[in-house]
Amino acid sequence: MALAAILVSMQRRTDIEGLRAIAVLAVLLFHAGVPGMSGGYVGVDVFFVVSGFLITSLLVAEREGEGTISLGAFYSRRIRRLLPVSATVAVSTLIASYIWLEPLRIRSLVNDVFGVATFSSNFVFAHRGADYLQSALPPSPLQHYWSLAVEEQFYIVWPVLIALVCLGVSQSSRIGIQLRIGVASSVIAVSSFIACMVMMNTSQPWAFFSPHTRAFELAIGALAAVVPMHVSRLARNLTSVLAWGGLAGIVACVVLMNERTTFPGPWAIAPVLATACVLRGGNISTWSPHAVLKFAPFQWLGSRSYSAYLWHWPILIIAVPALGHELTVGEGLACLAVALFLSELSFRCIENPIRRNIRIRGVRAFALAVALISVVTGSAVLAKNNPLRTSTNVVATTPSLIATSTVPAGETTSTIPTAPVLPGPGNTVDAITQAVAATGLPSNLTPTLQQAVLDQPIIYDNNCHASFSATKPKHCVFADTNSTKVIGIFGDSHAAQWFPAFEEVAKTRHWKLLTYTKRGCPPADIPTYSKVLGKVYNECAPWRKNVLNQMVADGVQVVFIAHFDRLLSATTRIPMWQKDWRAALQGTVDALTSRGITPVLIEDTPYPGQDVPTCLSRHYTNVQLCSPSVGSAYRPDLNQMLHDFHDAGVNVLWVHDWFCTATACPTIVGNVLVYRDDNHMTVSYSRLIAPLLEASIGNFVDWYAHTPE
């Protein structure tokens, strides 16, 4: 028998199953929140290497033994192995989600099911993760299918590539076959790793989910399958040492890596090479890791690793809304026990019977694939055409938020004897007080829960809200473009969310309005970490510098500054402390003042802490269950910081009373939805409070932006 075939038969029985067990155990415990497993996500990388090794070993053995590679037989085996359990879990997840998941999440889940059916889940989640508006949505119960999609795409391409690479090589030329595949694997591994490093600096979600940035892991597994095995005693001992080092390396990655590790950045190579070392020498000598990997529980779990991986994630995700709270570690482990039970059932009743049925091959195998894909697709279509109810028969009226200014719109500031000041914290708006008592979700809600995520300011669509990569501000002018009274909005998306209100006021007051906003970039000169990019946000500093220069060139007289007060620190990757904000904001205020621009700090809007439309879709009969308390919606330390700025003479626009009572912050006011996600205002609400904004800043801007004739 060929060396590769012997290797496969041995490794598949023990080492590969043992490695699969370690990989899936790491993933399961990590997702269940077990302490000490912070790097358990590398189990997926172990899976990729094992898949590359196993599939390449089988294809090489077939090429050496038969002189050709039967693509039909290969795809038949993959269909029998992967699709039955995959389809079962996907349809079961959709049914369970229809029962327990928040209704609004079903809509996006339907798209995820289509992704499962078309082997494109990784692209679905890459797009969602890179979308600034969708990146904060709750996780999908099918999100773990991204790794299966990457492997499926590999299975489609890899056997064809090997067949092409080996064209013209004699069946007896084992070295020639292995050399060609080794060279091809090396080129792919290096190219893919470079692509991954480059993409990590532009879009971490695409680097994480894309097949071409993950191909290096599968290619290294393939390379491990074709590197010649030396039989000398010294070589065997050295390989055994490397294998033990690889096993220790996998464990170290699981224990030492965490969410702060840039991944799949340079560190991704660690678990990949460690796995390759174990695969090369797991059973090469009597004292190799084979002694550990053949442990019976590992063999049991390894043989069921595919089913366990597919079942565990939807159970953990759906359990949260089913129980009504985040899972404790104990509850997470209980969910894993359920997942292992279902894994055993599916392994015995679905996976093994179909996988071992060699009559399902050729046309029959492809017919099975079409049937399973049709079932999954049909379930998604059925769910899409039967949406769950998310509203009551309540018809609410649009509230009227009118506050009278001391100076009528359009009147000159020459009638104002002294410089006006911005109003301090006052009384809660009546409409907010009434909103706290409301219960049912209005049937005439504006925008609807389904439309909420798209209810964004126009500056997102016309590229005036700068992209992640931009370092120069756009020259975007609104309202009265010929006015001599020029105001600006400066900051991140929490500044951009105010644009509709400021535009309404600027039109009424005949001001020129310019926007200086950028995704995730605070106006304060402070380094931040971007979850969307998966790295320190280095593009912010040059953008801020250019904004200050642009404001001077644009003749801005008054600028309103806003930022999300829970942006992450570049060093700790947790929300930044008050002392950091205080120093950085003071620097921005001083920089603007020195340029002759009057700065105004806007109190941040409340932080609901969860995706509001999703929550309301679940609690549509009692919307107050989605209203955050004032204590959770605001950071007391940053509130104190603003008061200190105010006491020091810095202008502050207080907006708390436009959103909250003394105790709660309603998510619906009248028939208007306040939030489009977990922290941004809807355009509808921003426009609704425009009269309150005008009453607060009208006189102030007219005074400070007045140009004497």
Portion of residues within helices: 55-70%
Annotation field: number of helices: 28
Number of strands: 12
Radius of gyration: 30 Å
Please indicate the percent range of residues in DSSP E strands (runs of 2 or more): 5-15%
Q: Would you identify the regions where 5 or more consecutive residues have pLDDT less than 50?
A: 1-8, 404-416
Gist?
This protein has 709 residues and is mostly helical. The chain contains 28 helices and 12 strands.
Output the keywords.
12 strands, 6% strand, 2 domains, 7-stranded mixed β-sheet, Rossmann fold, 709 residues, 56% helix, elongated, 3-stranded antiparallel β-sheet
Report on the structure:
With 709 residues, the chain is mainly alpha-helical. The protein has 2 domains: 3-384, no CATH class; 423-704, Rossmann fold (3-Layer(aba) Sandwich), CATH 3.40.50.1110. 56% of the residues lie in helices and 6% in strands. The chain has 28 helices and 12 strands. The chain starts with a helix and ends in a 5-residue tail after the last helix. The relative contact order is 0.11. Mean pLDDT is 90; it is low at 1-8 and 404-416.
